[in-house]
Amino acid sequence: MAESLEEDYTYSGDDDDDDDDADPNDYYGDECMEEDQEPVDEREPDPEYFEYKCLTVSEAKTFLQRQVEELCSKLKVDKRSALVLLMSHGWLIAELENRTEQDISNLLIEKGVLARHVPQAKRSVCGTSCSVCLQRKPRDEMKALLCSHFFCKDCWCKQFEVLINNGIASDLQCMAIDCHIGAPEDFVLSFLHVETIRKKYDKFIFRDYIKSHYNLRFCPGTDCTMVAQADKPQSKRVDCSKCKTSFCFNCCGAYHAPTDCETVKKWLMKCADDSETANYISANTKDCPKCHACIEKNGGCNHMQCSRCKHDFCWVCMGDWKFHGTEYYECSRYKEKPDIVNECAQVKAREALKKYLFYHGRWENHARSLELEAVTLGNINKRIQEKVMKNEGTWIDWQYLLDAAALLAKCRYSLQYTYPYAYYLESGPRKKLFEYQQAQLEAEIENLSWKIERAEKYQRGDLQNQMNVAEKRRQTLFKDFFPT
């Protein structure tokens, strides 16, 4: 933020009275800047584009009901059979249509929907004993599934209540040992007389239907009940229309492009396992590499300037900032030892830890920058409000600052998730291309962050041009490395 927008906080020791703050563009040649200023080709498809709908619980139930009715009509089966078939095939009706009639019958028998044979003997009408509570009950008090294992109503009721309270719904089965015949909804509901239990069962059975569906996903937002629907599951961003949570449609975790679902899962598990060994990289203070003054990072930008000696350096690698404008961001690329395969196991282990800490440090640094830039956004909002109150423009006049801050967060979030991708990417030409594009993106993000924090020192057009360049770099990387 510019000097008048920075009065509520300090930025890594910057001198507010110094009018000679370094412009990051000074470290780029004219040829590079002319190339960067090329407009984004809007004719190229957006790799993040994804068609989806956000459904309420009622809309999702209606959608499921239509599919059940469609299968009932096509295969001439009842509702219970249709539900079992759909859940076992991810609700892919086309796959079930390709099954023969005998295949369908065998599957229904396997799932306990159809009986394997007609019971040879009937229970006595006068009464029998329940093998669970060992009490003799009248015949009308004894109930059984297709397997003809009879139990009393009270035992069925208690069994279902206990399991439902434990979150089990679609997997409710016969109580007999080694019997896996499933209990249909109408059978279960006939024993649920407590309203709270019936509501839980309805909630859990609906949850199981959604989880088994190939193109429906629950929003992972806290206490959110919205359901995302897409024609084709992909590792792309969904923004919930209710709680505004962003998540990956494929795995329902935090959106993680360009890293694919399996890789980010491995990365997060590794970070959790190795968190103690990486604690030191979360420190918020470092010494200036030139005069050794202690500097605290309280802004998102990694382009630092020492307040004592005015030295410009990179917070991540502590290198001279002007050298970040050469071929590409060297501090984003890990330099592996070429002869590591010939080293002993102990040396290999140390090198593996060094590599992990390198990528984890940059991952954590960008996560920290996102938090600090959120604080900067709050300061921007306050300052804009002050300017509007002083008749120094309207909210619309200053909207570009908020747009710039939003784009910065979007780009930095994407940059953060490039590091797990790079960590697991094998060495070779493709990794070199990725690191080159990653470095270009990182350089433009830091330029954008620098300009946002000093917005009044840059013209509106200059800031908007930097926004376009940063987004172009992000789009270029995603077009080449977006997960499939």
From TrEMBL:
SMART domains the record matches: IBR, RING
GO biological process: protein ubiquitination
Localisation: Nucleus
Molecular function terms from GO: ubiquitin protein ligase activity; zinc ion binding
Region (Disordered) location: 1-45
Keywords assigned by UniProt, alphabetized: Metal-binding, Nucleus, Repeat, Transferase, Ubl conjugation pathway, Zinc, Zinc-finger
Predominant place of localization: nucleus
Protein's recorded name: RBR-type E3 ubiquitin transferase
Example of a GO cellular component annotation carried by this entry: nucleus
Keyword Isomerase set for record: no
RING-type domain location: 126-335
EC number(s) per entry: 2.3.2.31
Ranges that cross the membrane: none
The reaction(s) this protein catalyses: [E2 ubiquitin-conjugating enzyme]-S-ubiquitinyl-L-cysteine + [acceptor protein]-L-lysine = [E2 ubiquitin-conjugating enzyme]-L-cysteine + [acceptor protein]-N(6)-ubiquitinyl-L-lysine
Entry's family note: Belongs to the RBR family. Ariadne subfamily.
Cell inner membrane found in the keyword field: no
Pfam families: Ariadne, IBR, IBR_1
